[in-house]
Amino acid sequence: MKVKSILVSQPEPQAGNNPYTQLADKHKVKVDFRQFIEVLGVPSAEFRKDKVTPADYKAFIFTSRNAIDHFFRMCEEMRVAINPDWKYFCVSEAVAYYLQKFVPYRKRKIYPGTGNLSGLIPTLKKQRGEHFMLPTSDLLNPDIPEMLNIANIKWTRATMYHTVSSDLSDLSDVKYDILVFFSPEGIRSLLKNFPNFKQDSTRIAAFGSSTHQAVKDHDLRLDIQVPTPKFTSMSQALDSYVEEANKGK
């Protein structure tokens, strides 16, 4: 079936000329953005109950920009001074680069991975005897602790923010040909807002293995799976899918 509309379950990119606007212009399709989940910071008073403080660590693992935002927010609220000797281990170049918002970008203390935690494990293992803090949401991908434990990495989880479903009630009468998801929480938000959701001809695109699994766990059909050896980004996969679906339009 032809594709005329796509809903991406993320905020609209700030850059005007982004891959999604290029996709919309190229194929003359409507591309909308809507955040399906919201991130709420854990108050420092609540966080202190866990008896964990950044001041007790020298090395930190960041799996997202949200983790970075709330880590430095927590440091500020707890009056923890940023130690110039701290080391930051990030799952990707993009996450690592985001650190420059808070600290001088010195590559000798910032260690980017290849896009996921598994690519960062060899670097973590070289830090012999190091005890890492892992700032996270209340929802943590179970693959993360499993990988760290298998690699015998000494680490402590620090829950600094909560992930909750957005109110999507205004979308109740809106139908899209493709829904695009980047996390299991996005799938859960869809079904929380629309418990009677029927997929029918709506296609679902999902990024990442945990998101793929969430689609299947909720008995939904996964039509566009990313990444693959052919497509490393969602925009690439959507471009190819829409071009094929809209042939002869």
What does it look like?
This protein has helices at 19-27, 44-47, 65-77, 93-98, 117-125, 143-150, 184-193, 209-217, 234-245, and strands spanning 5-8, 30-33, 37-41, 59-62, 87-90, 110-112, 131-137, 154-165, 178-181, 203-207, 224-226. It has 249 residues and is an alpha/beta fold. It has two domains: 5-36 and 168-245, Rossmann fold (3-Layer(aba) Sandwich), CATH 3.40.50.10090; 40-163, Rossmann fold (3-Layer(aba) Sandwich). The protein has a six-stranded mixed sheet. Helix 1 runs parallel beside helix 9 and helix 7 (184-193) runs parallel beside helix 8 (209-217). The radius of gyration is 20 Å and the shape is globular.
Q: How do the strands and helices of this protein lay out in sequence?
A:
Layout: E1 5-8, H1 19-27, E2 30-33, E3 37-41, H2 44-47, E4 59-62, H3 65-77, E5 87-90, H4 93-98, E6 110-112, H5 117-125, E7 131-137, H6 143-150, E8 154-165, E9 178-181, H7 184-193, E10 203-207, H8 209-217, E11 224-226, H9 234-245
Parallel strand pairs: 1-2, 1-9, 4-5, 4-7, 5-6, 7-8, 9-10, 10-11
Antiparallel strand pairs: 3-8
Helix pairs in contact: 1-9, 7-8
Please identify the oligomeric state: single chain
The biggest beta sheet reads:
6 strands, mixed
- Portion of residues in beta strands equals 15-25%
Please tell me the total number of domains: 2
Side by side, the strands of the main sheet go: 3-8-7-4-5-6
Give the N-to-C terminal Cα separation: 10 Å
CATH architectural grouping of the largest domain: 3-Layer(aba) Sandwich
Counting DSSP E segments of at least 2 residues, the number of strands comes to 11
Specify the structural class.
Answer: alpha/beta
Return the CATH topology of the largest domain: Rossmann fold
Low-confidence stretches: none
Radius of gyration, in angstroms, nearest whole number: 20 Å
Tell me the name of the CATH class of the largest domain: Alpha Beta
Looking at the structure, what is the overall shape? globular
Order of helix and strand elements from N to C terminus = EHEEHEHEHEHEHEEHEHEH
Number of helices: 9
Helix coverage percent of residues? 25-40%
